[in-house]
Amino acid sequence: MSKGERQSVMIARALISNPEILILDEPGNGLDVLARERMLETVTRLSKERNITVLYVTHYVEEILPIFENALMLKEGRIDIMGKTREIITTEHLSEYFSHDIEILRNEECYVAKLKTETKITELF
């Protein structure tokens, strides 16, 4: 099975017991763009149709869905900031978090993070 197929099977397996909460630890890691979008659509559908609470761990702001009302960011194993997702996932917070100028773009469906043009890749290493 492909990584995307294995991910789907793992989610299906977790749903057998009709859980109230679904914990997904980096489920998009290693997926191609199509498989990741399918997985994100599944997570959204489960949250809405089955009323399942989803705890979703990710390193990628592009995976933060509109269904995620709250966010928590860890730094060095401790809570750095938590609150409403719209208030946490901002240019200001992520720039401070990463100690680099990062721009967060947002539309109704997703977030996108990119380095501001003044930041050179060599400055990151």
Distance between the termini: 36 Å
DSSP strand count:
6
Count of separate structural domains: 2
Strand % is: 25-35%
Largest sheet, described in full?
2 strands, parallel
Q: Write down the secondary-structure element order.
A: HEHEEEHHEE
Overall outline: globular
Multimeric organization: single chain
Q: Reading side by side through the largest sheet, how are the strands ordered?
A: 1-2
- The average pLDDT is 89
Identify low-pLDDT runs. none
Roughly how much helix do the residues carry, as a percent range? 25-40%
Radius of gyration: 16 Å
Q: Which structural category do the helix and sheet elements fall into?
A: alpha+beta
How many helices does DSSP assign? 4
Keywords for this entry:
single chain, 4 helices, two-stranded antiparallel ribbon, two-stranded parallel ribbon, 2 domains, 125 residues, 34% helix
Describe this entry's structure for a reader.
The protein has 125 residues and is an alpha+beta fold. The chain is 34% helix and 26% strand. The strands form three sheets. Strands 1-2 form a two-stranded parallel ribbon. It has a two-stranded antiparallel ribbon with strand order 3-4. The chain has a two-stranded antiparallel ribbon with strand order 5-6. Strand 3 (70-75) and strand 4 (78-84) form a beta hairpin.
Topology:
Blueprint (H helix, E strand, L loop, with lengths): L2 H13 L5 E5 L7 H17 L3 E5 L12 E6 L2 E7 H4 L2 H8 L3 E5 L4 E5 L10
Parallel strand pairs: 1-2
Antiparallel strand pairs: 3-4, 5-6
